Amino acid sequence: MKLPWLKPALEAPGPFTSVHIDTTRTDPHAAGELEARWARMRSDLSAAGAPAALLDQIEETVLSPSPIGGRHGRTLLATDTEILVDRVLPAPPLEEAAHRGEHPQLLPLLQLTPFAVSQLLIIVDRAGADLHLRAPDNPSIAHGRNDLGGDASVEGGHDVLHKASLGGGTQHGWRANNYETRVEDSWERNADAVAETVERILREKCPDMLMLSGDVRAMGLLKEALHHESRERVIDVPGGTRGVAFDRGPFREELVRVTEEFVARRQQELAERFRESQARDGASVGGASEVAQALTRGQVEELVFVTAHAPAMIEDLLRRTLLTDGAVSALPEDVEGVPEGVGALLRWRDGTTPSNSIGSMTGDARRE
Fold it and tell me: I want to staple 25 with a disulfide (CB 3.0 to 4.6 A). Which of 7, 30, 89, 159 is the partner?
């Protein structure tokens, strides 16, 4: 995952105060628990030299209710005079942390890269659709720079929507057939209007996931109207209805389920890509020392690390990757085949690039 918005913070002079905290408020006791956890963090940061005025700013941000529901977190990275990064996280940090040091603390934030998934959710009926864009930096879906504005709702404009019985008789049979044809035509034209808007959003916003819910017949018509590439990306999510809130209940659970499946599949594909590159001695390296050498040479396209098994120097490797415009991706802790818990896919390799294919690592206890 590319994270260009982090680079300015990494280039700023320190010292830095870093806060990674679970800001979930899903039960009545959550607010009090959050205040208590933050109080402990504040005490530690104050003892480490963080200015009181800065801690006041961070406290106001952390304790203010977020506009989103469900489980989430927050990361703040600040110099002594300014908060440089304030991000609502799509999931709580795996471990909360408060850190004071020369550089921003990155690991608790970057462990969540798998969950930074952008999504376009389309809820259709036979008249049109409601469209919702969810992005990693705006998990609330609306009221941010990812709000779709006028594209958030599409009405096809063809309003002959309901079939009806016009009685028996030859002429009535003809009239009924003609009317039903008009109804079907209206549904199809409305689906075409929705598809046109969807295709434009896909081009402009490039969401990772394309999810579809609503009226079953309308879902089928929309898929027929989409381009082949878009149609292949569609993930059906049962239970959605236009005009009905979806932040709670079974439909929200379905959204969570399909998102988790997408995240797991994408992580598996990345791990396989790295292992395959290692197996054929391709454009990749594994191990902390080898990755550090590749970073010095500007070769790293994407750094991958295994959650809970990253090496001691992971903060340095993460920072150097981002400063050289590389991507960073976390893999689940049960992933195998990543030496020392860290590796890199390379932009290029030559004869001086360290060779550590899987075959060459056999018997190397350092990498077991």
Answer: 30
Chosen CATH of 268-367 out of 3.40.50.1220, 3.30.1330.30, 3.40.50.150, 2.10.109.10: 3.30.1330.30
pLDDT tens column, 115-133: 989 999 999 999 899 999 8
CATH 2.170.140 fits 119-247, yes or no: no
This prediction's pTM = 0.82
* 3-class SS letters over the chain: CCCHHHHHHHHCCCCEEEEEEECCCCCCCHHHHHHHHHHHHHHHHHHCCCCHHHHHHHHHHHHCCCCCCCCCEEEEEECCCCEEEEEEECCCCCCCEEEEECCCCCHHHHCCHHHCCCEEEEEECCCEEEEEEEECCECCCCCCCCCCHHHHEEECCCCCCCCCCCCCCHHHHHHHHHHHHHHHHHHHHHHHHHHHHHHHHHHHHCCCEEEEEECHHHHHHHHHHCCHHHHHHEEECCCCCCCCCCCCHHHHHHHHHHHHHHHHHHHHHHHHHHHHHHHCCCCEEECHHHHHHHHHCCCEEEEEEECCCCCCCHHHHHHHHHHCCCEEEEECCCCCCCHHHEEEEECCCCCCCCCCCHHHHCCCHHHC
